[in-house]
Amino acid sequence: MSTSDAPGTLPVFAAPSAVEPGLDPAWVARVVELALDEDLGPAPGRDVTTQATVPASATGTADLVAREDGVVAGLVVVPEVLAQVARRLGLGEPAVTFHAQDGEAVAKGQVLAALSGPTQVLLIAERTLLNLASRASGVATAAAAWTRELAGTGAQVLDTRKTTPGLRALQKYAVRAGGGTNKRMGLYDVAMVKDNHVVAAGSVRAAIEAVRRAFPDVLVQVEADTTAQAVEALDAGADFLLLDNMPTPVLAETVAAVRAREGRDGVPAHVELEATGNLTLDRAREVAATGVDYLSVGALTHSAPILDLALDLRPA
Questions:
Q1: Which residue ranges does the record assign to the Quinolinate phosphoribosyl transferase C-terminal domain (predicted)?
Q2: Pick the CATH number of 2-138+305-313 from 3.90.1170.20, 3.40.718.10, 2.60.120.580, 3.40.50.2300
Q3: Across residues 106-113, what is the average pLDDT?
Q4: 270 to each of 171, 255, 267, how far by Cα in Å?
């Protein structure tokens, strides 16, 4: 919820995010610590330029500004970056006033937050907080574009495991901020039977049964490249299907075949279907029209450009 002191003033948000579920604070702290170690050297580290040219006693205010239109995410990490830098330097922690929230559409030139405190802390924290927030905002912006394109179709955009190592939680959070949906978080929470697993196990049925014996608590998804493979996976007991790299006519045929079997012979009343592979924004509605539930798009996290954000120190 935001408030403002008078008409025309910037909104003020009590918290930088309303995205659920939020990021684990302990995870944020670990990521920020690693990022600062990269930039400053092992704790406490140093910034030879800032600490030589800016007195430790100097204070100032800096604005976090959007340099282009998009959807912002990652503001939630800003206070942690400032707090850790302040502790390393033995200086006071800057105050942050948020004028936007994660998940909000922002415009070029919009002030997202104002940071006030020791100038050394502001300048040393700058690159780390921009790296994290810019990357997250780029993912959120990409997810929002897919979400808009799929509006009214009944299908949702999903992310994948094609994330930057170490930043998966942030990037999947950013997908949620952009209106997208998270698939499995890792290899531990959903079984995904792919062609190599089928080869190793001997058959689709053997692979599914092996998973059921070893991990009876998890759902089992099976990858299918053809309608016949999709039907075979259903008959073998798959919970839901990943329809990979199918041309639109084949995808529509496969969806129809699956829907015709729902509720019969042990098949669930509704089998969730996920289209993936060779998906582009201009094909989104065409693919959704086949009746799939999800479109999974690795590019949300592996190819989204950053959203250009800047930290501008106000003149004294």
A1: 139-312
A2: 3.90.1170.20
A3: 98
A4: 29, 11, 8
Dihedral through CA 183, CA 188, CA 193, CA 196, nearest 10? Answer: 120
Q: How far is CA 172 from CA 6, 175, 184, 215, in A?
A: 36, 5, 10, 25
Q: Is the fold of 2-138+305-313 the same as that of 149-302? A: no
- Residue 81 neighbours by CB under 8 Å, 6+ apart: 32, 35, 36, 125, 128, 129, 132
Q: Please give the helix or strand (H or E) that residue 296 lies within, else none.
A: strand 294-296
Residues with a catalytic annotation lie at 127, 162, 194, 223, 244
Residue ranges of domains in the chain: 2-138+305-313, 149-302
- Nearest one of 32, 47, 36 to 123, comparing CA atoms: 47
Q: At 46, give phi and psi (nearest 5°).
A: -160, 155
CATH number of 149-302: 3.20.20.70
Q: CA 247 to CA 283: how far, in whole Å?
A: 11
d(CA 203, CA 176): 36
Q: Is residue 7 scored above 60 in pLDDT?
A: no
Nearest to 313 by CA among 136, 134, 125: 125
Average pLDDT over residues 217-222: 96
The residues facing 296 across adjacent strands are 158, 276
234/213 Cα distance (integer angstroms): 18
Q: What does the pLDDT read at residue 9? A: 84
**Ordered DSSP codes for 15-69:** SSB--SS---HHHHHHHHHHHHHHHH-STT---HHHHHHS-TT-EEEEEEEESS-
Class of residue 105 by CB neighbours under 10 A (exposed 0-12, middle 13-18, buried 19+)? middle
Residue type, 53: T
* pTM assigned to the model: 0.94
